[in-house]
Amino acid sequence: MELTRSKTGMLAGISVLAVVFTVALTFATLQLPVILGAWLSKYFPDIHPIMEPERVAEFMAVARPIGYACLAVIAILIVAGIVTGKRKLSILGSFAFFLPTFGYFFASMFFLAGLGILRVLFIPFWDPSVNLMNFGDISYLPYMALVYPFWLGGVDIREALAWIAIGVGLFIFVLGTITWFYGKAQKRKTVDFWIYRYTRHPQYLGFIIWSYGVTLFAAQQPVPMGGSNPGASLPWLLTSLVIICIALTEENEMRKEDNEAYLQYMVRAPFMFRIPKFVSAVATLPTKLVLKKNRPETGKELVATFAVYATLLVLLSSLFVFLDWPPGIGWSDWPGFIPGIPGPIMNL
Amino acid sequence: MSNKRLAAILGGCIAVIVALVAVAAFPPASGEPADGEPDGNSAFHIDVLPETPQEIDGVDVYKLSIAGQHFVFLVTINDEAQESELPVTISAEAPGAEVVIHYEDILEGEVAEVVVMPAPASIGTRIEVTITGTRGTVTDEKIVSFEVAEGEDDRQEYAEMLLGRFVSWLAANHPELGITVDTEWDGTMVSPVWLVVSHYLFFSEEWELHIEWHIMILPDDWARIDLRHRLDELEPSYAFEISSVDATSEPVAIEVPETVWR
């Protein structure tokens, strides 16, 4: 699309609108959990696990089957959506699977108190005998790569990074949504301008970056009473994989509907964001090995691709689990106390 | 893709994940009891804080208390052979004093509290406290002693006033601690011989709050608190300071002391 003067003005106007929405949604991301948590704590009050173990056991006896049932329903929604091509089911399922991450924002002694009740869904992964929540810890690699050099220089960017991820994710999401609506209003079959020139799935990319920021915040939350915070890396990892599968499903449909134009667009714009060729080659290698082609095209192939990538990433994450890394109280404190800057947890 | 191939891929993935979870859930048997020794009888030893008497320049120096004061010893265990899943039961005897034990069954990493309250008849004597840990047939014992001096608690009123100021600020600014203005506290005087800086301990269900204040005129009339979470912490984890009590300064976070005050 060529930019005339009026179109430049419109683009500027839309960008300002996107910034306003981004600020509002960033604020909502961090404030709504606080308000909701205060309200929910009336119905799910805090329980001291050490002083009132019987109450905790009583509550868990009810909550455990509910957690397993909810997870089963969500898994069915996601798989059914991918296999049948009904994307909305998968989107709903994956968002519902990620939602309990907000439960970490509510400080309590009992992990299901207040807003923590959302984490009932994570119960199957949150067993005292084996904490599966850390089987997505490979997700923290980008976080580690960004935080550590600053930490060496005595600068703590942990919280700032989470904020930035939330803000950037929402900005991309909002810009993508506005562009899509504008494109549809112009009756375009393939929206390929503005932010769509830089990513074929700005809304999904925005969601993945936003949810990464939320996951970082969740992992950084101090846990009162000397407890530990397992973080929510596994839900983020699986949700992101589902979102990528949904994006692939959409592309398959677009290629069928608008084959030539969409194929040309695929050459011009990257899937999520531009990455070096060798990284792309490594990232797509499992697909090529399993499917003997570059991308999954049917529901079954998508399920197989999801399973293979999820297994590989869980395998890589298991290094963190078996090495019991990071040491101490985990990600909420990693990489530790920076002299002169109070960490999220002091002196634990 | 055929159903058979899909099933093979999914089966392989599930097998890998089940194997991973199994290894994580059931780690190699290094943590199991050795040589058939029953888990309930595994060796351990107990540590008691504070150590009193302390040897300073070859002389045993005893901590001091007054009658009725709560002298709180913190007791932890160290499993020597392996991590046992059975707790150690803490008991204590102190002739001439009343003894109350909080969290008497502890695992490694947990903290029991032995509270010794000297009787008025013990003024001028030394209280010997024998603290015993028992698990199955295995026991470990530590003896600590402190002296009882004449004196009375004349600090309670001021300490409670300061407590109120810190608590209302903590309730508003650190809700994650679970401290509210309605939290109930039991106080006890400590360190009766310290004069320029006075000390007081408060205990809620969850927290031990040590408060100290500088008996000085504005602007050097500071007050500080440090907080230790009971049962699972041996040292304070938070500390705050009001730089001048009379100037009604707001509390600010400060460096956390390395040890609890006794």
Write the layout of secondary structure elements.
The complex is a heterodimer of chains A (348) and B (262).
Chain A: H1 5-40, H2 53-84, H3 87-98, H4 141-152, H5 158-185, H6 202-220, H7 233-257, H8 259-268, H9 277-291, H10 299-322
Helix pairs in contact in A: 1-5, 2-3, 2-10, 3-7, 5-6, 6-7, 7-8, 7-10, 9-10
Chain B: H1 3-25, E1 44-49, E2 54-56, E3 59-61, E4 63-66, E5 71-79, E6 88-93, E7 97-102, E8 105-106, E9 112-118, E10 126-135, E11 138-149, H2 156-173, E12 186-189, E13 197-203, E14 207-214, E15 223-229, E16 238-242, E17 252-253
Parallel strand pairs in B: 4-11
Antiparallel strand pairs in B: 1-5, 2-3, 5-9, 6-8, 6-10, 7-9, 10-11, 12-13, 13-14, 14-15, 15-16, 16-17
Tell me what the structure shows.
- The complex is a heterodimer of chains A (348) and B (262).
- Chain A is mainly α and 348 residues long.
- Chain A has one domain (19-332).
- In chain A, 61% of the residues lie in helices and 0% in strands.
- In chain A, helix 2 packs antiparallel against helix 10, helix 3 (87-98) packs antiparallel against helix 7 and helix 7 runs antiparallel to helix 10.
- Chain A starts with a helix and ends in a 26-residue tail after the last helix.
- The model of chain A is unreliable at 339-348 (pLDDT under 50).
- Chain B folds into three domains: 1-31; 39-149, Sandwich (Immunoglobulin-like), CATH 2.60.40.10; 156-253.
- Chain B is 16% helix and 39% strand.
- Chain B is built from two helices and 17 strands.
- Chain B has helices at 3-25, 156-173; strands spanning 44-49, 54-56, 59-61, 63-66, 71-79, 88-93, 97-102, 105-106, 112-118, 126-135, 138-149, 186-189, 197-203, 207-214, 223-229, 238-242, 252-253.
- In chain B, strand 2 and strand 3 form a beta hairpin.
- The longest helix of chain B has 23 residues, at 3-25.
- The chains are: A mainly alpha (348), B alpha+beta (262).
- Chains A and B meet through helix 10 of A and helix 1 of B.
